[in-house]
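Shape matters. As here.
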Amino acid sequence: MFSSIASFLETWKRESELTLEIFKALTDDSLDQRVTKEDRTLGRLAWHIAITILEMMSKTGLVFEGFLEDAPVPSSVKDIINYYENASESMKMGIIHQWNDQTLLEDRNMYGESWTIAMILNVLVNHQIHHRGQMTVLMRQAGLKVPGIYGPAREDWCKFGMEPPLI
């Protein structure tokens, strides 16, 4: 849980950079990759991460610009990246100008429950991490190289003179 705006912004900076690494490894052709026809595509997952910034933060009362939740999934990785970068920066500036550390203790109605803003920020970060993990599986299925995020990816182990672990 975040106890200061500064600690959230530091975490968000790192996590958003990691999300962008995943997004930048995508190709326009890979955006339609999915496990089954009932599941989200790789593009839908990336777009979901991007639009959730506005969706969740608008429930806190934070005011900043972004697309509506039902905006269609772009067909271009570049468009998803541009939206994500703009939404992330707009959120950051909104937090800096509209909130202080005491704001984190305030409660908001989130999905029928009462959450502190600190908890909402924590969920926003974890939500992004969760969906990045889903994306990496689809990226492998699409034949893309998965960037090492919290450690080396399979392809990176050889740089260390090691075989990738199978467990």
Q: What stands out?
A: The chain has a mean pLDDT of 93. The longest strand covers residues 107-110.
